[in-house]
Design a protein that fits this description.
The complex is a heterodimer of chains A (110) and B (113). Chain A is 0% helix and 45% strand. Chain A is mainly β. Chain B is an all-beta fold and 113 residues long. In chain B, strands 2, 4, 5, 6, 9, 10 and 11 form a seven-stranded mixed beta sheet that branches. A four-stranded antiparallel beta sheet of chain B has the order 1-3-8-7, with no helix packed on it. In chain B, strand 9 and strand 10 form a beta hairpin. Classes of the chains: A mainly beta (110), B mainly beta (113). Chains A and B meet through strand 6, strand 9 and strand 10 of A and strand 4, strand 5, strand 9 and strand 10 of B.
Chain lengths: 110, 113
């Protein structure tokens, strides 16, 4: 079964502190992993995908196939990072059905 | 380049009624996917349309149906509405065979009373 688990519904850190949003998945085969973000009053948008291997807004995420994890990290949190974050997976090719986790609300305190 | 637009933004219906939600895909995209997002949950895949044909379906009953038009816009129809159908319905467009990144609309908030 395809499943994405985000164990923390809420995460609160202080500005300048490191951030790690956890994501674990189960999938038979090789999935593509994504992080989507939703800022206040904005639509859901792609933050990054594991295939791109890039850093967006200071965030990185490494796919760990052994631990079936795709945790999102940022070394120094900024207030504008406060948002809802969703981890999602799909198969690499063909019909891209996204399977989402339930999301983590990140709050950066000043 | 225009983004994904959905209409209406809000809708209130009563149990047993039927509803149609609309989505215009982003310019250059040929695929539309629909998701249901219940309060406090992540989006859940309903189905996807590519070249006017259903191209994958999630675990939703047949009373959830859709259409895609030659201009790649799409409709989601829900018959015999139930209270549990109250949710945010998201449309996402993408280019199958291209980068396969889904771009989301702002959603339609459906309330079933």
């Amino acid at each position: 079964a395809q499943r994405v688990t985000q164990p923390e519904k809420l995460l609160s850190v202080f500005k300048g502190a490191p951030v790690e949003l956890k994501c674990n998945y189960s999938y038979s085969g090789s999935p593509e992993l994504f992080w989507y973000v939703q800022y206040s009053r904005q639509r859901l948008q792609l933050l990054l995908r594991h295939i791109s291997r890039e850093s967006i807004k200071g965030f990185t995420a490494d796919l760990n196939k052994g631990e079936t994890s795709f945790h999102l990290k940022k070394p120094f949190a900024q207030e504008e990072d406060s948002a809802m974050y969703y981890c999602a997976l799909s198969r690499i090719q063909g019909a891209q059905k996204l399977v989402f986790g339930q999301g983590t609300r990140l709050t950066i305190n000043p | 380049e225009t983004g994904v637009t959905q209409s209406p933004t809000h809708l209130i219906k009563t149990r047993g009624q039927q509803v149609t939600l609309r989505c215009s895909s982003q310019s250059g995209h040929n695929t539309v996917s629909w998701y249901q997002q219940a309060l406090g949950q992540g989006p859940q895949f309903i189905f996807q349309y590519y070249r006017e044909e259903e191209n994958g379906r999630g675990n939703f009953p047949p009373r959830f149906s859709g259409l895609q038009f030659p201009n790649y816009s799409s409709e989601l129809n829900v018959n015999a509405l139930e209270l549990d159908d109250s949710a945010l319905y998201l449309c996402a467009s993408s280019s199958l065979g291209g980068q396969n990144i889904q771009y989301f609309g702002a959603g339609t908030r459906l309330s079933v009373l």
